[in-house]
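Our consortium's second objective concerns turning raw sequence data into structural hypotheses that experimental partners can test. To show how far this objective has progressed, the report includes one record in full. It was chosen at random from the queue rather than selected for favorable results. The single chain below, 553 residues long, was entered without modification.
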Amino acid sequence: MKQRSLSLLALALLAACGGGNDAARPKGGGQAADEPSVPEQQRYGGTIVIGAIGAIPDMNPLTSTDHTANQVQQFVLFMPLVTYNDKMEPVPRLARSWEVNADTTALTFHLRDDVFWHDGKKTTAYDVKYSYDMARTPETGFPNTAFWTHYKDATVVDSFTIRIGMEPHADFMDSWRSFAPVPRHVLEGTAPAQIRNHPFSTRSPVGNGPFRFVEHVPQQRWVFEANPNFPRELGGRPYADRLVYRVIPEPTTLQTELLNGNIDYYIAPTAEQADAIERSPNARVVSFPDRQFLMLGWNERREMFKDVRVRQALTMAIDREAIVKAVRRGYGQLGNTTIPPIFWNHDPQAGAELRYDTAGARRLLAEAGWQDRNRDGVLENAQGQPFRFTLMTNQGNAERKDITEIVQAQLKRVGVDVRPQLSEWGTMLDRINDVERRDFDAVLVAWVTEFRIDDTDLFSCSKMNSPYQWVSYCNPETDRLLDTLPRIVDREASRPVWQQYQRQIARDQPYTILYFTTRLEGVHERLRNVDPDARGDWVGIDRWYLLPTMRNR
């Protein structure tokens, strides 16, 4: 998800540095230990095939809610104004430079003048202003509205200069890392509410990045080709001639396709598959600590989830450590809040009281009025309604399917009847994003936080009718903390407030956060210079290349 994505700090990451390093490396990194450096002129050519279980529903940066779509927008098809280097510091991309005024109330970007949309028109500040204005227009449905909480109107100074007003706030550059402007000349005149339905979203996206759109077959593939006019200062033409993103809903098939050489890059193999991939002479595993966490969302529009004691009890009744060991084979770290353990502001004590404790869970449920009144093994409330709900997750993800079944078994021990339900990815997104209905009981879903943590879209009372406020959680104290945190620019001064915030979320348990993932990628031996990290699965993809002696397409 985007969420998802969803959200810049100079992090002390444990991950490998991304992109560009051609030194010999042991198996598990971007290069094989016995592989000599390939001269640059020999790196050009071939088709890189990427496989994953999920379809990318659309490619519109203004409306898409899918995390993989956001990755493609950042690194493949479009160009955000800035990107992050391997130290997680903003560096130029579409913007050649930028500056802020003395009181940090205006941010000015100076754009490159050599970037063209793939239909031949030059990218200008007018495109950036149009995109920014549309992203701030509620009718457009831009999902990450928290990006702009402290931003104001934009002014085009000249064709390659834009100035945006803002309130002083922490880590203000982060939004520009993942927000990709769109071509004004393609979308202008479309009503904001209809932008998501424009052919640009699914049939004819026009980007300005290192690769350009070729084809989209829904539920099957996206195809991109190298942009020969990409600025040399930014790397020039990508090494690969083409990228093909294939949708392969079955993880076992994905593994087989990787080991047989039919795909070159398998996004997020299961932990169970990691050993088999590493043992193969044809492939390797790259891993890094991620910003993604897996969580169970309790829809507070459902009466049974409105009581905080119930939500706390559900968390205490789930053995999350056992899930990490059984399903992730240890490739994960428990979490109780939305702040990844690799971030400077993570509070390891938040939620410590919600350890696995079935007896404590039963006591809390009893306090909330849930008892097994008819001795059938399922709790009922005072009206005799059983504690029974459907837990939805997306089909095709074996790990998530396994987790729903484990949660079902564990909650049964405390008298809660869970009915797992698998749903097609796009259908599930529609159900949880529909602000009118929110037609679900509970959902197992992943979230990828942004580097600048702003959970307003997830938790703010003011966002009840926005796409990501899935569980309809509202607490004025949480709102106060969400409003305060971005205004404290000094990290040390903000640290105790971050602690208060995380402990508040842990007490309220709008979600049961199962774990933060150690991200895995399966890489075929012919694909080189691949070093993903917490920035994303696709980071540096324009510098990935196929060994000339092993290209078969």
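The partners drew two points from this record. The first strand starts at residue 47 and ends at 52. DSSP finds 15 helices and 19 strands in the chain. Both points have been shared with the crystallography group to help prioritize constructs.
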